[in-house]
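Form 7-S
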Amino acid sequence: MAYVSADARREQLIEAAVRVIAREGADGATTRKIADEAKAPLASLHYCFQNKENLLLAVFAQLSEELPVDVDLPEGEKASLGPVMEQCLTRAMRWSVDNPVRIRAMIEVTLWAERYDPELSVGFYDAFLKSSEDVLRQVEVTLSDEELHSVVRVAMSLVDGLSLQLLTNGDKERTLRDTATACAMLRAFLGDNA
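Output:
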């Protein structure tokens, strides 16, 4: 058998875990099933991650890094909140449409964390909230901090809800149309703040 570095094995196991979690849920994704999916010895999974919980955290971290939260700001112009929020929401939903297995795994791991360690799931959302707000603070924002927090939480709820609908009905075109509607609603709400 060819040598596989620990980093390469770790990546293989995370990718295998994504597929197994998406197919069987976080609870059904046993370490044995994940190792089998990766065509790796079970011992290598325990060497790389020690336990299933650490592997699930690594899966969430990997998927979180992939979910786009950055924006293209117009050079030399001041961007306003509405168009930037629209860009963020649209990018996130295009990623969901293009990566249904990955979004399913992310949702499954988030629900797993909520069941077994609610503080961890709060931490997951807080990390998204912070990264989204960091992006939005690069633009002209006339909202108070609390108003901005609220708008970002609503946008995150839209991504969650639209992603669940996509997973349920599989209609990518409808998901993108609904995303456009959600963006229009956000911009209408922001009004002068957009």
